[in-house]
Amino acid sequence: MFESLSEKLGGALRRLSGRGKITEENVREAMADVRTALLEADVHVEVVRDFCDSVVQEAIGSDVTKSLNPAQEIVGLVHKKLVSLMGPVDPNIMSVTPGPTVVLLCGLQGAGKTTTAGKLAARLREQGRSVLVAACDLQRPAAVEQLRIVTEQVAAEGKGGARVAFFGEPDKCAEYGKAVGVAVGVAQRAYRAAREGRFDTLIVDTAGRLHVDDTLMRELQGVRRATEAHQTLLVVDSMAGQDALIAAKSFHEQLHVDGIILSKFDSDSRGGAALSVKYVTGAPILFVGVGERFDALEPFHPERIAGRMLGMGDVVSLVEKAQKEVDQDEAERMAERMAKGQFTMDDFLSQLKSLRRMGPMKQILGMLPGVGSMMKDVNVDDKQLDRIEGIARSMTAAERKDVRCVDQQKSRARRIAAGSGSTIAEVGKLVKQFEVMQKMTTQLAGLGAFGKMKAMKDMASGGPGGMPNLGALMGRKSTHTESIKSKFKSRKKR
Predict the structure, then answer these.
(1) Nearest to residue 321, comparing CAs of 360, 350, 287, 348?
(2) Coil, strand or helix at 177
(3) How many helices (H) and strands (E) does the chain have?
């Protein structure tokens, strides 16, 4: 996430830290580099101009160049301006009494409205609110069926508590386009069903277009009036660039949207939408979609996003993810075992399972301070984790308890390779790496928080001291190893 923007912003600001003294000219040069980085990240040109001008004016006006740590002051100032640009935000969906509270989702085709409707329903259900999801997108015949499947999956994943249900009239798709107000009629009946069923919230999924037109807007306005929607949320594709911003502005001008949800946020390496959409529309970003799972809809925190853009990481979000997915008692037991040097392959599989529930590995590592800027050079393929898990699960209980026996008897390695669809070399490599990891976990147990953070960064980059890196463990060559090999080859040619 934001790898490209983070690298360029970090490079521009790092050049300041290398100077003994900073002048007004240095600040302007650095902000010229920041300006270029933001434009290349597809940030709206007006946003870039106002942002850079305000940073320069405040830096010079507050005598930042005369402070003890001017480079740090400017980084802090840029962070503050980024937060101001994207915030403030209150990501809570309002609740009215008596219900139902009506939430209307709108946006262009392909923006991810249907999936977002399911994610939002899952999030509200976690808060104890019963949700009815209504399919009012009749333009695509498959849209009603898609939303039904999504809603049923969300309902099936629920562990007791509040209800999640679906309302749709797939037969009305045939009438769509032939009669005016078909979608409005479906919305009215959905609202009655939500009220009679005593649902707390009604989420209305509406039709989109490839572009904004009068027909679409009239339909959306009709659906909003029919349901008396309390909140209108616009779903924007984070990766769509300037076209998405133009469409978002049109939606807001005609519908006065209350908030924005950025979908496909985890795939956005540029960050243009996050920095531009509030400025262009005036509506706050409430949520971001960060994966395919139904729990992958997160509140938008401007200060945390600004930190990621500047390579500061996002430890708070990482801790929140860990608290949600990791059992505290189990974590304490695991820490004791690691401190005693009793870390086994079964423990590794348990840790790996918890870690993967937190999200893609590259996304997790990018939350560590200083790691985000180097993630562009680290190839973390989650499919390799499947292979590692397959090899580990092909071992017997005794082998997982003590992997050295696999190294000592080649017949065991052959059996494991055959059972996991891998090669003997891959099995041997995993065993060797795991033995080093066992030693490292014992060392980690004795480190403080700062030491553990540094060790995690070293793991991501193929760090010092023979420490196993993620690239090696996952069958990838680290950039550290590659640089050593390239130097050796160049000397050999001479």
Answers:
(1) 360
(2) coil
(3) 23, 8
pLDDT in tens, 300-339: 988 888 887 776 655 556 666 666 666 667 777 777 777 6
348-353 — which CB contacts under 8 Å span 24+ positions? 348/392, 348/434, 348/437, 349/389, 349/392, 349/393, 349/400, 352/385, 352/388, 352/389
Torsion of CA 137, 139, 141, 145, to 10 degrees: -10
Based on the fold, state whether residues 345 and 411 are members of the same structural domain. Answer: yes
What's the token pair of residue 6?
A: 């983070």
Question: Helices 242-255 and 272-281: crossing angle, nearest 10°?
Answer: 30
Contact 280, 249 (CB under 8 A): yes
Rounded Cα distance between 43 and 31, Å, is 15
Output the six-digit token pair for 128.
């104890």
Cα gap 265→262, rounded to integer Å = 6
CB-facing half-sphere around the CA of 489: CA atoms within 13 A:
6
Query: Are the beta carbons of 167 and 133 closer than 8 angstroms?
Result: yes
Look at the alpha carbons of 274, 280, 283, 289 in this order and tell me if their dihedral is positive or negative.
negative
Question: Which tokens in the block code for residue 110?
Answer: 């392909």
Owner of token pair 């649902």: 199
Instruction: Answer for the pair 64, 73: CB distance below 8 angstroms, yes or no.
Output: yes
479 and 373 part of one domain: yes
CATH number of the domain to which 159 belongs: 3.40.50.300
Which residue range is the domain that position 71 belongs to? 3-86
Whether the pLDDT of residue 184 is over 70: the answer is yes
pLDDT of residue 303: 86
Spell out the residues 6+ positions from residue 441 whose beta carbon is closer than 8 angstroms to its own.
338, 341, 343
How many domains is the chain partitioned into structurally? 3
**Which two three-digit tokens encode residue 111?**
């923006």
Whether 195 shows a pLDDT value over 50: the answer reads yes
pTM of the prediction? 0.68
Phi, psi of 238 (to 5 degrees): -60, -25
Classify residue 478 as exposed, middle or buried by CB count within 10 Å of its CB (0-12, 13-18, 19+). Answer: buried
Task: Name residue, tokens 């974590």.
Answer: 331
